Amino acid sequence: MGKKSWADFELYVITGENNHPGKQLADVMEQALAGGADILQLRNKTGSKAELLEQGKMLRELTAAYGVPFIVNDHPDLAIELSADGVHLGQEDMPIAEARRLLGNDRIIGISTHSLEQALAAERDGADYIGVGPVYPTNTKPGRPAVTTNFVADAARHVAIPFVAIGGITLGNVDEVLNAGASRICAVSAIVGSESPDEACRYFLDKINAAKALQPIALTVNGRQERLPVQTLEGLVLRLGQRHKRCVAEVDGELIPYGKWKHTELRDGMTVELVHFVGGG
Amino acid sequence: MMEDCENNPLVIGGVKLRSRFLFGTGRFPNPGVLQAALEQSGAEVITFAIRRVNLDSAQDDSILQHVTDRQLHYLPNTSGASTAEQAVRIARLSRAAGLGSWIKVEISGDPRTLLPDPIETLRAVEQLAKEGFTVLPYTSDDPLLCRRLEDAGASAIMPGGSPIGSGLGILNPYNLELIASSSKVPVIVDAGIGSPKDAAQAMELGAAGVLANTPVAKANDPVLMARAFKLAIEAGRLSWLAGRIPRKRYASASSDEAGSLYPAGGMV
Predict the structure, then answer these.
(1) Mean pLDDT to the nearest integer, B204-224
(2) Most buried residue, A121, A201, B26, B55, by most Cβ within 10 Å?
(3) pLDDT class of A4 with cuts at 50, 70, 90
(4) Does A141 qualify as catalytic in the annotation?
């Protein structure tokens, strides 16, 4: 697996056996690959080394058959032993530089980030990609506060290396994440926990590709020129990472009540003002 | 003071207020000081301005996140407007935020003095009153203009004592007293107040309330100053209710002369 093509991935799938009781890991992951998942990670925080090794061997063969990169969570040593394409680190795992020494320049190193500061640090430290999340509260990582789509929007504006949005993303909310500026999506329970993982993958990919097909339009936002692939006022505010601010919007001089943002279509050349209250006498 | 609050509250646009201090929220050193000062002020009405959100920052710098846990009435201003049309636009934007329909009309045509443009202010008040806003215009201290603003539908009149942020106090007490005594709507002295002394003076002249921002926010200790303003406004109000003595050219002894050990006989 060359490093050139892997970065074009769109749908990142991670194992999560808790989500599919009664189904074999191999069957579920093969379905995800058949559905179009184009990067796959083994994550098993509770299994023994022997179990991980066994699952890893199986997934290495499977991903190789589909020509898809195989990433191992947390364990650079296991990644080497399994001839995996890379490793995915958490913020509490070993530093990127240390993982790089172990894995060399040909293997992929990804890291989870939960703030723009962490994202930019990972980029500086030589990560090949970052995870951006959890976008929504998730049972996979209970207790970790959601970073919301604002972090996705920030990453889209400020991070140059590939980033993948992760955490609580479902077919029901993925449009919001894509609108905020993500072009790579990672899902766990929404895919491996689905009745038919292959179908779930196809739906996700349809949505990702539809978002990619959006043409950017030229807008004047608060007096500034922007070119963004947005369709609605709500999409614009999402994309600008301003959704948490209690703001008021005006489009071409017309006041748009919050309830109508979703249905207010933006067209090339429009002028948008987003205002809010600041201290004053 | 309690009695006055209960029996004779300040009423603006149908809302009864126990405090006669309207609190400006700009230029405080930080949100913590702002909150503490607001607490000490006892104010129930706060003012703020409307500005574009900063698209480069995800951090929310809105004023509302610091004060929404209180029982307050919101008085956004139209600062930045230099025409009636601009003020009306800002008023509509602020009403869309869902914090009520009070608006302080503030239209300045001169960046050096920030003095209000009387013609544009009157036009804006006419339009906004028609649109159902509770309009509180910041105006120059001209008694006839104030009457015209009242006739145009203003819910209160806010003449300035001197230019915004100047701290020069009340430059024309004669006009202010005239305005206060002839208006049928509350008169709130806004702008130019430098210290609690000026606030007390405004109340003694018959103002129904005082709006202050810079003299609190830029004081060495804004929290202490907020309390000083609260007390001064209460003192001035009580003084006006009590009725001050007339000014005399010569002395008037505090004790009767009868029985004096040294009867005044003039020069011996």
Answers:
(1) 96
(2) A201
(3) very low
(4) yes
Q: Regarding beta strands A224-228 and A217-221, do their DSSP bridges make them parallel or antiparallel, or are they unpaired?
A: antiparallel
Interval A224-233: pLDDT, tens: 999 999 999 9
Residue A199 sits at φ, ψ, to 5 deg, of -65, -45
Residue B257 neighbours by CB distance under 10 Å: 9
Does the fold of domain A217-276 match that of domain A6-212?
no
Decide: B62 and B51 in contact? Cβ < 8 Å. no
Confirm or reject contact between A224 and chain B (CB < 8 A). Answer: yes
**High-pLDDT (> 70) share of chain A, %:** 98
Q: What is the distance in angstroms between the Cα of A117 and the nearest Cα belonging to chain B?
A: 12
Q: What part of B 107-146 touches A (C-beta under 8 Å)?
A: none
Q: What's at B239, amino acid-wise? A: S
- Average pLDDT, rounded, for chain B: 91
Q: Is residue B76 within 8 Å of residue B96, measured between CB atoms? A: no
Tell me if chain B has a CB within 8 Å of the CB of A116.
yes
Domain spans of chain A? 6-212, 217-276
Residue A11, C-beta contacts closer than 8 angstroms, at least 6 positions apart: A36, A37, A38, A39, A184, A185, A186, A187, A201, A204, A205, A208
Q: Looking at CA atoms only, how far is residue A124 from chain B in angstroms?
A: 21
Residue with tokens 């149908």: B14
For residue A139, the model assigns a pLDDT of 75
Contact A150 B58 (CB under 8 A): yes
Contacts of A221 in chain B (CB under 8 A): 55
Looking at residue B265, its pLDDT comes to: 64
* CATH architecture entry for A217-276: Roll (3.10)
Q: Which helix (H) or strand (E) holds B103?
A: strand B102-105
Which of A244, A255, A275 has the CB atom closest to B51's CB atom?
Answer: A275
Residues contacting residue B199 through CB under 8 Å, at least 6 positions apart: B21, B189, B193, B210, B212, B229, B232, B233, B236
Q: How many CB atoms lie within 10 A of CB A26?
A: 13
Maximum separation of any 2 CA atoms in chain B, in Å:
85
Lowest mean pLDDT among B101-105, B214-218, B255-259: B255-259
pLDDT of residue A142 exceeding 80, the answer is: no
Domains of chain B: 2-242 (3.20.20.70)
Confidence of residue A281 (pLDDT cuts 50, 70, 90): confident
Chain A residues with CB under 8 Å of B23 CB are none
Residues of chain A with C-beta less than 8 angstroms from the C-beta of B25: 279-281
Q: Is the pTM higher than 0.90?
A: no
For residues A236 and A241, give the distance between their C-alpha atoms in angstroms, rounded to a whole number.
9
Task: Give mean pLDDT, residues B93-104.
Answer: 89
Domain A6-212 listed as CATH 3.40.50.720 = no
* Nearest CA-CA partner of A249 in A273, A218, A225: A273
Residues pairing with A89 in the sheet:
A111
